[in-house]
Write a structure and sequence with these properties.
Helices cover 44% and strands 26% of the residues. With 239 residues, the protein is of the alpha+beta class. The strands form 3 sheets. The protein has a 4-stranded antiparallel beta sheet with strand order 3-1-2-9. Strands 5-6-4-7 form a 4-stranded antiparallel beta sheet, sandwiched between helices.
Length: 239
């Protein structure tokens, strides 16, 4: 699982380096998260993690503050989540997560990307059953047993723990995110940096692609990530 996760992260890095897109993505996500769970990070664990992640990605403070200020208002934009699934080059599987104020426009834009890459967009559940929707934490720690015990005591249904290069990678169901993070930080201390602190779709199996499929996949991901409404793209392509 860890190898699949790292492969996906490396692939995503190829298509997430446009600053304007990155700022827009975080601004919208922070706004929606704060609107749903409250604007105070101390009382909204998901918001606090999101802000920490934004800072790691060097999102300026004014972008974060603007999103929080918008969330404090009674009006503002009405964003909703949208998820699209389908098949990419070489039989790969793709999940596209969006935040949109116009679902018809977003579906049309995402479908156009699939069509241009000669890929097939599918119905809900067409590929997501081949992914785990996981909370993922990566941090430097050398006592795997202690972490597992702390998570079990917190009633976290741990999916997997990997220990590599003096770093632990913990996988848990996305619904156990808050419990898992609280248990980990209470054990290892607030000062320990969580190198990864996210909820992601992790594929059960990778699909190797080569030749023209690699170029097509890169173009396909570039098109998807260029769309303002697209927040994250998950896939199981292995280069």
């Amino acid at each position: 699982m860890g190898r699949a996760f790292q492969n996906r992260k490396e692939s995503m890095a190829k298509t997430s380096d446009a600053k304007a897109k990155l700022y827009s993505k975080y601004g919208r996500e922070i706004y929606v998260c704060a609107k749903a769970g409250g604007v105070e990070p101390d009382g909204n664990l998901s918001l606090r993690s999101l802000i920490d992640r934004a800072k790691k990605d060097q999102v300026p403070g004014h972008v974060i503050d603007k999103a929080l200020d918008k969330a404090k208002g009674s009006g503002g934009e009405d964003f909703s989540t949208a998820r699209y699934e389908g098949f990419g080059p070489g039989g790969t599987m793709v999940i596209v997560d969006c935040l949109t104020d116009n679902p018809n426009r977003t579906f049309g834009d995402v479908r156009t990307c699939f069509n241009k890459a000669k890929c097939k967009i599918g119905g809900q559940g067409s590929v997501s059953h081949m992914f785990d929707h996981s909370a993922i934490f990566v941090f430097a720690y050398d006592d795997e047993e202690a972490v597992l015990e702390a998570l079990m005591e917190a009633d976290v249904d741990v999916t997997d723990i990997e220990n590599e290069n003096e770093k632990l990678t913990v996988f848990a169901p996305h619904t156990d995110y808050a419990k898992a993070k609280t248990a980990i930080t209470e054990l290892v201390g607030e000062a320990v940096e969580l190198e990864v602190d996210e909820i992601q779709f992790v594929p059960h199996n990778m699909t190797a692609i080569s030749g023209d499929d690699v170029e097509t996949m890169d173009k396909f991901l570039d098109m998807l990530n260029f769309l303002d409404d697209v927040q994250n793209v998950y896939h199981n392509a292995e280069y």
